[in-house]
Specification:
660 residues; six-stranded mixed beta sheet; 18 helices; 15% strand
């Protein structure tokens, strides 16, 4: 297996780079990292793009449209350039026991209507025309162009790899490329071509055969077109779904914010004002009830407090005085009878004592009876007590209801005061309408793509049935020579075996990926107990996370930084499949991570993922303890600075402490 190492790169007249800037990228075996620091807009992403373009040209974009590539180069080409734009990438390629120093150069000359590119390849200092012609095929054998984004990638976009809708397709395509399954697919197509030629060879002179052959060719053409259409729609569908979900979430968030900002009160204005009027009527009703309770002559008695107790005591005293007046005559007659009876029966001293006792008793009754009578003719307060208590309860209940009604009215008045005017909400309502329209448009687009996909899949099934029937007819009705029949049969059996082999190969690789991604993810995570394992389904390649309690952990539960670490773990597992034979370049890899995760990423990923790792960082990503940790594995560091005066960037060395 070939091993590629970047020796250095030179860039001129592209992006922020005007004069030629050259970075020496050679590393020591124990220090695989090259650090490049720059502020945003100074040239980090341009440097990453230049590495991709220098290696793969238009294929680096992952699209077959040359217009996209030309637009990219025109966008990078400086308007103030003196001379052509140029990238020179010095490589060392080790293969089959030999080591070659290769310089790949791409030069662009820009005119008003045309952009021309010149590619040259030098081997060991001399131009190699044959390698220049075969460069794309030569490099694809080392690392296919479709996988370059896994080795040279933008760290800020890496989180998108953790999207559960797109991750399975990316994992499967990457695994197929790593395993060379594209060769199996090519062989399957070649076998189908052999079968087709064998079928067509059987009856070249038959008019019926010609018609059947044309029908078969047309069906194959239609089937190929529908397959391509289904593939395109399958790629569009996750993006359309994500756009729809984002639009729906944005509308929901803005709608909730609008409700909090007064839209709900505005929409409920009539109801709130009606409630205020009801509350005001209720206050009037309860106030009338209080006045009616106060109109009861007994109600004041319940509110006089100690005076009511004094009244009851005075009434009792007057009742006793009245009773004493009524008893005085009887008491005097009784005392006379007692004294007459005792005159002849007791001594004079005893009689005197009895007279004194009876006189004192009469004096006491006389004192009580002499009290003025004021209240004695009024109603007994003991009999009035229940009526007074009932009047008091009615009054207290009416007062409580009045207080509650007034509190409710005050609340309604506050709500009425909080109702915004229509002109205050005009801008908010307009924005809400715009977001609702965006949601409806995204939903319609998503539904349209879904319907198209369903229709195309149905048409594909129908065409597949017709195609198989046509092939069976060709095989049955237009039998040719025995060798043709054997070729057809052998081709069909081989295609079946290859299909089973491909599926089992992918399934076995899914098990290996599950183990490797789990190992890498747990090594990068600070929360060691958050997950138990990461599982890659052998059939669909869908990725699921098993939590600490054995239950599936939705990816939405992960933070943005944790999703980025999951994506890094996936990349690390895929890159390690190449046994570290190709450099890794990462643009802005640490911006969304905290210090602990940054240091873990340096130790577990950058220091081990490949023999050469280029880190393109902002000025704040690699600082303090993170900078100290990276310095342990850094061979060289550069600082790219943009000059407002000269309107261009320049690269220079950045001091790094190297411990020996």
């Amino acid at each position: 297996m070939s091993k590629v190492t970047f020796k250095g790169i030179g860039v001129q007249n592209l992006g922020p780079f005007r004069e030629r800037q050259y970075l020496d990228l050679q590393v020591q075996p124990s220090r695989p990292i090259i650090l490049v620091k720059a502020l945003n807009g100074s040239g980090k992403t341009t440097l990453l793009t230049c590495l991709q373009v220098a290696l793969y040209g238009a294929k680096a974009l992952g699209t077959s449209r040359t217009s996209d590539y030309e637009q990219l180069i025109r966008g990078l080409h400086r308007q103030d350039a003196k001379g052509s734009a140029r990238i020179d990438l010095d490589l060392r390629i080790e293969a089959d026991g030999e080591c070659d120093d290769i310089t790949i150069s791409r030069e662009w000359i820009l005119s008003e209507s045309k952009l021309s590119e010149r590619l040259t390849v030098q081997r060991d200092g001399s131009q190699d025309f044959q390698m220049c012609e075969e460069w794309d095929e030569y490099l694809d054998n080392i690392l296919p162009a479709e996988l370059v984004q896994l080795f040279l990638f933008d760290g800020e976009k890496i989180e998108a790899l953790a999207n559960p809708k797109t991750l399975p397709d990316m994992l499967r395509r990457a695994t197929e490329a790593f395993l060379g399954i594209g060769g199996i697919d090519s062989l399957t197509k070649d076998l189908m071509a052999v079968e087709r030629r064998a079928l067509l060879h059987a009856k070249e002179v038959s008019s019926d055969y010609e018609a059947a052959r044309e029908e078969l060719a047309e069906l194959e053409r239609q089937h190929l077109m529908i397959e391509e259409a289904v593939d395109i729609l399958s790629q569009k569908l996750p993006c359309a779904q994500e756009l729809f979900e984002n639009a729906r979430a944005a509308y929901k968030r803005f709608s909730a914010e609008a409700q909090r900002s007064g839209l709900a009160a505005y929409e409920q204005a009539a109801k709130i004002r009606a409630a205020e009027q009801d509350a005001r009527l209720r206050v009037n009703e309860t106030a009338n009830a209080v006045r009616e309770a106060l109109a009861d002559p007994l109600t004041p008695l319940a509110n006089v407090g100690e005076l009511w107790k004094c009244y009851k005591a005075l009434w009792n005293e007057e009742r006793e005085a009245k009773a004493s007046k009524q008893l005085m005559a009887e008491i005097e007659r009784r005392d006379g009878r007692i004294l007459r009876e005792l005159t002849s029966q007791v001594s004079a001293s005893s009689l005197t004592a009895v007279k004194q006792v009876l006189a004192a008793d009469s004096k006491r009754y006389m004192a009580i009876a002499s009290k003025a009578l004021v209240l004695s003719d009024s109603q007994d307060p003991q009999m009035m007590e229940p009526q007074v208590s009932a009047a008091a309860k009615r009054y207290q209940s009416a007062v409580k209801q009045l207080e509650a009604a007034r509190a409710h009215l005050a609340d309604m008045e506050r709500k009425v005061a909080a109702i915004p005017h229509g002109e205050q909400l005009a801008e908010m309502l307009a924005e809400l309408e715009v977001r609702a329209a965006a949601q409806s448009k995204a939903e319609a687009q998503f539904a349209s793509i879904q319907q198209q996909q369903t229709d195309h899949q149905s048409n594909r099934t129908h065409l597949s049935n017709r195609l198989n029937a046509s092939r069976m007819r060709m095989s049955r009705e237009f039998r040719g020579q025995a060798l043709d029949l054997k070729a057809i049969s052998a081709g069909q059996r081989t295609r079946s075996v290859l299909s089973v082999y491909k599926d089992r190969l992918l399934a076995s690789k899914a098990t290996w990926l599950s183990k490797m991604i789990t190992e890498e993810f747990r090594g990068l995570m600070r929360k060691q107990r958050l997950i138990t394992s990461v599982h890659v389904d052998p059939d669909s390649y869908a990725v699921s996370i098993v939590g600490a309690e054995g239950h599936e952990l939705p990816m939405e539960r992960l933070s943005a930084g944790e999703r980025q670490l999951l994506a890094v773990a996936v990349l690390s597992a895929l890159i390690r499949e190449r046994k570290g034979r190709f450099p890794v370049v990462v643009d802005t890899p640490l911006a969304r991570l905290d210090r602990t995760h940054r240091e873990a990423l340096i130790r577990r990923f950058f220091a081990k993922v490949s023999h050469q790792v280029m880190v393109l960082s902002t000025d704040e990503e690699v600082e303090g303890s993170v900078y100290d940790e990276m310095s342990k594995y850094t061979s060289a560091a550069y600082l790219i600075e943009y000059s407002d005066e000269h309107r261009c960037s320049a690269a220079g060395p950045l001091l790094v402490t190297v411990e020996h």
